[in-house]
Design goal:
Layout: E1 3-9, H1 16-19, H2 56-63, H3 68-88, E2 97-99, E3 107-110, E4 119-124, E5 127-133, E6 142-150, H4 160-164, H5 173-180, H6 195-216, E7 227-230, E8 245-248, E9 261-269, E10 272-280, H7 282-290, E11 306-308, H8 310-313
Parallel strand pairs: 1-11
Antiparallel strand pairs: 1-5, 2-3, 4-5, 6-10, 7-8, 9-10
Protein name: holo-[acyl-carrier-protein] synthase
Keywords: Transferase
Domain 4'-phosphopantetheinyl transferase: 144-239
Amino acid sequence: MPLARWAFNIRQPLLLENVEPLVTRLTDDDTHGSDSSSQRPPNIVPVSNLLNFLPKSEADSLLQLRLEDDMRRALVGRLMIHAFFTAHHNCQWENLVFDNTESTKPVLVSPEHLKSVSYNISHHGDWVILVGNTDLSCDSPVRLGVDVMDFQEQVSGESFESFSACFQHQFTPNEITFMVKASSPESSSPDCASVDAQLKRFYRLWCLKESIVKALDINSDFDLKSIEFTIQDEEETEKPILSTVIGVHEPKPEVLSEEGWSFEEALLDSDHCYAIAAQTDTTASSSSEEGGSSSSPAILDGSEIRRFDWKELLKDAVPYPVHSSA
């Protein structure tokens, strides 16, 4: 089953050539919490000018975010969702309507025939990631979740024990052992624990658990300790890892089946990791195989994630009508 797997670094400057002639200076908010607009090169456009590519209700919501980075991440995330549906599901950018419900992601309301398309988005640090199903013809339902984390979020100088203490009730003993035994690649002794390496493993496991929660579309009350990840490839690289497997402890949560899951993990750069969780309906797959058809290809194929720039992200973008509140 083909999946779109997109990543966008929010530190990319938005150049005037990326948006002309689609967008003009429609906002006066050049700085959004910064006083550096007078020093901005003349060909750099404030990202707030892209708000007119969204319905007014969405744009107004994003303008409530006081920190510039928060607004950039949220804005890019919304633009990526629009770009995904436009690129892979043959619909017009300005006709997409979303509803912010109690779900963990915006719910597509229109076009109605695309409401069942599975997708998920995550942003943290410098990166925004989207994963989405591009194949409407597939008979097997799919659940998708993605999470990205910035390794540098912890307080500088803080010990691993103090940092992770408040999270330990969400990890199994085997997962805690995996984190604690992490050693620095530069260390000559395999028993020499490294705080940085421990924290990276912490974030890696946290990404995996969050990807499951988001794929299941459930709230934060879910008992994360009921899930245990067994990691075969101990160190991450930018090449996707597909060998990680899940185990579910008794009593098993009603919302969680142990079957049909696959996972992808990788580094986006030296400071950020991500994890994708994908679950297919194994019942439907089994029925197809019993009927004599060949098994479907792996949902995660190990290819590197596609990294977008502003030009690619906005190539199908169309401004919404000024008074649109969809």
